Amino acid sequence: MVNQNPEQIARDCIDKQLRECGWIVQDIKHINLNAGTGVAVKEYQTDVGPADYVLFAEGKPCGVIEAKRIEEGHRMSVHELQGKIIQKHL
Fold first, then answer.
1. How far apart are CA 23 and CA 40, in angstroms?
2. CA-CA distance, 46 to 17, in Å (whole number)?
């Protein structure tokens, strides 16, 4: 594996885990929410910036995943706002 920074290592791990759970992982440039029941879109743009992953179930947003270092776990206020903005679109 190529020398990666901690965030990319976390993203690779998240991609693998999502796929193992049956999610279809897509890049924002190649989004197709009809590709399957569960679609995870990387770098999905929200009103407060991109979310690392937005999860869609049957084409509707249902969750957000952020790839952060363990040390960053306590500073999630921006990411909580992303989730609230996505909820408005439900």
1. 6
2. 23
Q: How far apart are CA 8 and CA 59, in angstroms?
A: 26
Judged by average pLDDT, the poorest of 9-13, 14-18, 26-30, 36-40 is 9-13
Q: What is the pLDDT of residues 32-79, one digit of tens each?
A: 999 999 999 999 988 888 889 999 999 999 998 887 666 655 555 555
Task: Quote the pTM value.
Answer: 0.74
Distance (Å, rounded) from C-alpha 89 to C-alpha 6? 32
Do residues 28 and 44 make contact, with C-beta atoms less than 8 angstroms apart? yes
Place of tokens 């020398």: 3
